[in-house]
Amino acid sequence: MRKTIMYEQKLLVSNILIADTPWSRLMGYMFKTIPQDYEGILIDPCRSIHTFFMRFSLDVVFLSNKGIVVKIIRDLKPWRLTWIYLKADQVLELPTGKLPSDLQEGQVLEVRDV
Fold this sequence. Notes:
The protein is mostly beta strands. It has one helix at residues 22-27; strands at residues 3-7, 10-19, 40-43, 58-63, 69-76, 90-95, 109-113.
C-alpha cells in the first residue's frame, strides 16, 4: 500500500516505505544506495536509530504516536548513533536534502493511504 506524508496541507513525501517488521526495521537503509522506487522510510515503532553500514547521509524526523515532530536531525552521517527519544514512537528517514527547511519540532505530520 502506498502512503504519503503531509504537514500543514503540504506534501512532504509522496511515496514512503513502512518498516514495521523486525527485519525491515533492522535493515532500513543499511547496505543500500539511495532508492529510486520510494522517497523514504517510516520506521514504526522506533525511538533511536544508527547509520552503521549506510552509504549516504540522512535527514531524520522522530515522531510521537500522534505524529508530532519530537526531534529533527539533518544530515546524519554514516556510522553514527542518535540519542533515545522517549517521546518518539516512529522515525522518518529521508536522504539528506529531502526534508523541507520550514519543518520544525512541534509540527504535526499526517501519514495518509493513497
